[in-house]
Amino acid sequence: MSLEIVILAAGKGARMHSSLPKALQRLGGKPLLAHVLETAASLEHSGIHAVIGHGADLVRRTFEIPDFPFAGVSGLNWVLQEKQLGTGHAVQQAMSGINADLVLVLYGDVPLVRPGTLRELIALAEAGNIALLTLETSSPEGFGRIVRGADGEVQAIVEERDADPRQKRISEINSGIMALPAGRLRQWLDRLDCDNAQREYYLTDVVAMARDENCPVRAMKIDDDREVQGVNDQAQLAALEGHYRMSKAEQLLAAGVRLLDPARVDVRGHLLTGQDVEIDVNVVFEGEVSLGDGVKIGPNCVIRDASIAAGTRVLSGTSIEGAAIGADCSIGPMARLRSGTELAAGVKIGNFVETKKAKIGKGSKASHLCYLGDVEIGENANIGAGVIVCNYDGKDKHRTVIGDNVFVGSNSVLVAPVTLQDDSFVAAGSTVSSEVPAGHLAVARKRQKNIARWKRPGKR
Ligand code: UD1
Ligand code: CA
How confident is the model at residue 140 (pLDDT cuts 50, 70, 90)? Predict the structure, then answer.
């Protein structure tokens, strides 16, 4: 049976008290709607319809930037719901574009539902049922309640604000997620009214209509309540972020990663790990990161879009972004590797060293207090403390090339474009603005003058 998916994401999320539409609030580093789109795209489907309204332009623009992973979701169709007249009205807006046998309704603010759960729900609908995803909970407040008849069959869904005291005591709640036949859904939606406490067209009212027409309704109770938790306010978003963090940490532990504290590592993206990887506390991974065998990450590091090869140690307080780091390097503490940094094996980058577009050869070292931008450094070079590469002349960036076995003395300034050939040596405190030939010593500073019989200024 063919299936199309409708994602409801037009709501404002007033209780978030944010200028950002709710669909764009971030969980695990990406918009809530991105999580749902990703899940939807992983199912077999013949179309995805995202119903948007509040901040629709911004939502669409966010998802349509070329390098955003969802620009290419096959068959993604944006549907505009200009006024948010309710969940039933929202689904109705998408119906004209739907040709499939079945419709799966997902909520843009329920981001952690698993594809496996949805496949089960879809199978229930394929067997001819209206399939609802529900949850048994001790705190049903705020949710639609699943009303069952004496025979135990689902009769209706009653919203909290329309429920009588007896119905409010029902502990089975509606997740909002459902799968149902498209043809009948279309007819039921056409018959919805807004005769309820919120004056809205409720999608949930189709359940009672189905019962009236003797269409079987089946509720699939979920075990893991995290899957159906919605985001309505910042507290719920923070709670969900905690769940998300924990599930990522559990995956790492299962893969054999040593986490000093699973509650204090955030994976906001994809993290690939080798064997015997160790991650200390308060480490944040963003984007695509890979860590080779035996890599150790110290506390308080942020690592984004980077590959770190086997045996490398990243010491505390280090920030890495857009870097490819070879094996057996030592980085930090408190180093900053920026985009375009490429380190060969055995490189040492010490405290307060910043690199950008820096290609550094095997065994080279910059141990303290440097800026290395737009630079290529050969093997076994030693960059002394306080060396600054002046790559920017106020208008353009220029390159610096440093050969193999070069020694750059402390507090030297290399004014780009400039080349220091293999085996050259720069005396400490030099300002180097022209090429240093191979094997030469460059001294580019004033000679020291000692003044005899000098008197210190005395106190008046
Ligand atoms: C809804 C369900 C409730 C369920 C709860 C689960 C209805 C009537 N109620 O209530 O039974 O327990 O979800 O979280 O369906 N939306 C639109 N357009 C609209 C209204 C809503 O796109 O006109 C979207 C929202 O952006 C949101 C989703 O639909 O993503 C749910 O809307 P919300 O107003 O949060 O519904 P609830 O009152 O939570
Ligand atoms: Ca909600």
Answer: very high
